[in-house]
Amino acid sequence: MTGPNHVQIYDFASRRVTIIPIAELAQGYIEATVEGVEGSVWIDPATVPRKTPMFRHESLDAALEDKIREIIKKLGPVFPKSFENWVLDLRRDTHPEREISIWLQITDVYQSVTGTHNLSTSQRKELFDLILRCSTCDRKGIEEVIQIETLPRELAKKAIDMYYEARP
Questions:
Q1: Which of 14, 21, 119, 150 has its CA 20 to 30 A from that of 54?
Q2: For residue 143, which of 34, 42, 10, 25 has the smallest C-alpha distance?
Q3: pTM for the full predicted model
Q4: All structural domains of the chain with their residue ranges
Q5: Are 3 and 23 in contact (CB under 8 A)?
Q6: Cβ contacts of residue 152 below 8 Å, gap of 6+?
């Protein structure tokens, strides 16, 4: 069990859990549930073992594909992912509609903040990373977990508030 200022990190290669101070949590890690591990842990998504792709959906409907295009148009500069990769990933997803709704919420908060503030490229990327992190964990401790370098703190707090207020 971890204390309030510590998190559990899971390493897929060694299959071990390590407890570290929350301040040392690397950017890009996400909170997850891992089969065979008690409680939630933080993982590096790049290290998750990939199995042979399994498609749960033959195709996506036109409405979902339109939403994907909207997300790409608005987030492309900070999250360059092709339409084809979006479709492939969502065809593997158990609930693609729910996944798209999360991405639309990320997009809405991002657009709302960038539409009212003149941000540099690095600030826009940091804002996106912050909102993405919000989508992967509970609000509790998010301000401690995220590492803000160029984005003004008050703007980061505004984005966090906007994301969690809109979260279902």
A1: 14
A2: 25
A3: 0.73
A4: 6-47, 62-166
A5: no
A6: none
